[in-house]
Amino acid sequence: MTERSPEAVSFLTTPTSFASGQLSFMISLVTTRRAFTPVLTVPLLAVLCLPAFPQQPGGAQRGTTPHLAPHPGFSGNPGKNQEHLLQWMDRHSNLPPDQQQKALEHEPGFRDLPAETQQRMRDRLTQLNNMNPDRRRRWLERNEAIARLTPPQRQQVRDAMHEFGSLPSDRRHQVARAFHELRDVPVPQRQALLNSDRYRGQFSDQEFGALSGLLSIEPYHVILPNRNADDSPER
Questions:
Q1: How far is CA 16 from CA 50, 81, 149, 197, in A?
Q2: Is the bond into 219 cis (omega within 30 degrees of 0)?
Q3: pLDDT band (50, 70, 90) for residue 83
Q4: Would you kindly state where each structural domain of the chain is located, as residue ranges?
Q5: Which of 62, 138, 186, 207 lies in disulfide reach of 203, CB 3.0 to 4.6 Å?
Q6: Residues with Cβ < 8 Å from 57, sequence gap 6 or more?
Q7: This protein's superkingdom (predicted)?
């Protein structure tokens, strides 16, 4: 069994709105820099105006419907003229936060947005800059992976996280533990383990479906902060 980072289980043991909110926050990433519209297609702008994920486990509200639809203007397929959020942040990494804010404000289309939306985007950029560098890099790299998912793959992530998020918190934790135990096991052995009394006996049909759904998602770093995960639910 691999060691696990504190973020991994805490991500998988938070309510649905955390999972869906973070994925919504991550998916709308890519855009052209040649032809911008008032609805904003620059990736940073598209991402920053979506709901941010909570910083602590349990900080999200229950009952939020998952939403993985791309931002208007996001094709979902990166092209040669498209820039990812990771690239934007790298390109502006030499700037202090206040200068990054100014760069954001000078992105084409920014000033066409309602004042409230502009402020939300400034706040999101501040949130990114408040992360430590390692965590921010991991987060941006997950964004990169999400940006490359096909629509069916995004739907698969959505369905799995919805099923997982509908479980009670104590059962989510148990399902998350099982996921971490099984994710690196080769598929044939994994299926045999899933069908064994050890796992069939401890999970309901709904919990077993959630576990199977999570294990069906490739690559795993789409839903995990780190391939090396720690069993602790604390950050």
A1: 16, 34, 20, 28
A2: yes
A3: low
A4: 6-222
A5: 207
A6: 10, 13, 14, 18, 233, 234, 235
A7: Bacteria
